[in-house]
Amino acid sequence: MGSVIWRNSAGDRFVSFRPLLGKHADRAHGRALWSLWQEGADRPSSVLTFQLPLHPEAKSTPVVVSVLQEWLLRNGSSQFAQQELAGFATVELPREIPESASNEYWLCNNNRFGILVSEDGWDIRTGAESLANRKSKVNGSRKRLLSFEELDRLCGWLATHWDAIAFGKDPRPPVLRDKGVAACRAYERARITASPEELADLQLWWTKHAIRAADPDLPNIFLERQVDDLVISWDASPSGNHSFMIPYGTEITSVRFAVPHLRRLLGSRKNDFTISPKRKKQVFGVDPDAGYRILRSTFQNMTKEWLRDHQFSNENASEMALAGTARHPVVGLLRSAQSSKISLSDIESIWGKLQPNTGNRFQHLRALAKGMNAQIDLREPWQSGYHLARLVRAELSIPETGYFDIEAAVQKLGVDVQDASFADESILAACVGSPQFAPLIVVNTRCDDANGPSGRRITLAHELCHLLFDRSRMQSFARFEGGAAETDRLIEMRANAFAVELLAPIRSFIRPDGNLMTDEEAEKLSVELQVSIVAVRRHVQNHR
Predict the structure, then answer these.
(1) Is 292 in contact with 11 (CB distance < 8 Å)?
(2) Dihedral through CA 504, CA 506, CA 507, CA 510, nearest 10?
(3) How far apart (Å, rounded) are the C-alpha atoms in residues 279 and 513?
(4) Other CB atoms closer than 10 Å to residue 423's CB: what's the count?
(5) 404-429 pLDDT tens trace
(6) What is the rounded distance in angstroms from the CA atom of residue 32 to the CA atom of residue 36?
(7) Residue 181: closest CA among 486, 493, 539, 500
(8) pLDDT of res. 3
(9) pLDDT tens-digit series, residues 440-470
(10) pLDDT of amino acid 416
(11) Do residues 461 and 502 lie in contact, with contact meaning Cβ atoms separated by under 8 Å?
């Protein structure tokens, strides 16, 4: 069997080819099955198949080449392929499969988190374990299933806060940003030290991310969009009437996988909870207009015309509405900038620096990262960042200790590094890793923390981590870094750990007797490594 894949901003497209087993297996009389595929809901699906002689024929070859070019290179339609091939090939379209009547709404692969509805009630499950397992504070009775009234209140809450959960239009308030990946724990930590003003912001954020805001007797479960992932976290915090007999846990899933299933859950109950016509259109609309609306709402002065002028197509807009994200780089830039002082002029300046991806500009990045994603533990971002940095040094044949020339390494990997002056002085840099453009890092010259030897080196190492490991399935990544943009803790903690370990590996700070250096010794070495003493001290302290 043979296959070819073509990646572009509209999504992956595939062509596969295999000989048909049967009476004629030889080239002269055999038949071959060709299939056109495209990615949808984060998984490939066949849109058309056709049979041709296994041995190429003069009359069909030009047509087949034209169909493949149109499908792979120009995002052509299956209707075009069907019309072109109908004259001399057996063309079949996949049989329409009706939407599943299943009452199971799994938001993660492998049934790691989901909502299961039965005739008697509904349950929230992580694997085989129920997160609704609770005991009454009044009479000690135990229950697992929740009531349909609670389900309808949950669906009404999801619909009300759909943009925050599905599209990430609600960044963490400052008091919450450095408190960890799992929102349920971050929220509890933030409440301890928050001022009255911060508590007000924290409470407003809670109403959009904690399902207990829908009903006070629901489990303490948080749903938070981070980059292109949905982070689901929970603990056993009691409600007013119940104690919950469940463990603490976190699951991380792709929004491309979770959002359609959440929409299906809402669709199954849309006649049982109140939703305005406007909100109904916002939740269930998956046409281009819905996608444009979502992006325009994330950024002041954004217009549909501006998006179209920057090659954001109707296909991109439909993808945004359906799956909660799109591969066009403007999506990540707008989302990460929405709570900062970044202007459209700043985004324009980045756009002007992007170069077309002629050839394979990601070849070296892909080769370096190959196999390393398996080493990432999403629940342990710091440990994963340290481990990935050691793997990268080893793969690049850099000694385990000592100075690392990050600027030379990044450029050798095919990354374009440029400078710009952004309106927001707290923004360190911007990074774009999208298949239609060459990989780009833009350092903000107005940010003191990003300039100078140490700041620039740390910034470049941080962005390298994103380009290597945070382009979903090696497809797309774009965002501003630092300041108000630094709300996605899942990837930021990992990239921070990666950067400091790459440039100042902890083995460099281990004395011959096996103990870590003193602060004074570490300060001297930090000068040689060109990494700030503040970063080094924090790094060493984390390993004490």
Answers:
(1) no
(2) 110
(3) 65
(4) 14
(5) 999 999 999 999 999 999 999 999 99
(6) 13
(7) 493
(8) 57
(9) 999 999 999 999 899 999 999 999 999 999 8
(10) 96
(11) yes
Mean pLDDT of 126-132: 91
Q: In what order do the strands lie in the sheet with 129-130?
A: 104-106, 114-117, 122-126, 129-130
Residues 1 and 22: beta-carbon distance below 8 Å: no
- What one-character-per-residue DSSP string does 493-525 give? HHHHHHHHHHHS-GGGGB-TTSSBPPHHHHHHH
CB atoms closer than 10 angstroms to residue 10: 19
- Identity at 469, one-letter amino acid code: F
Q: Give me the DSSP letters along 246-278.
A: ---EEEEEEHHHHHHHHHHHHHHTTTTS---HH
Q: What is the C-alpha separation between 478 and 467, in angstroms, rounded?
A: 9
**Residue range 249-260, pLDDT digits in tens:** 999 999 999 999
Comparing CA positions, the residue from 522, 524, 525 lying closest to residue 538 is 522
Rounded Cα gap, residues 53 and 19, in angstroms: 9
User: Could you tell me the pTM of the whole model?
Assistant: 0.78
Q: 176: closest CA among 212, 195, 202?
A: 202
Q: State how far the Cα of 163 lies from the Cα of 172, in Å rounded to an integer.
A: 14
CB 447 within 8 A of CB 462: no
Residue 202 burial class via C-beta count within 10 angstroms: exposed 0-12, middle 13-18, buried 19 and up: buried
Which residues share a beta bridge with 134?
143, 244
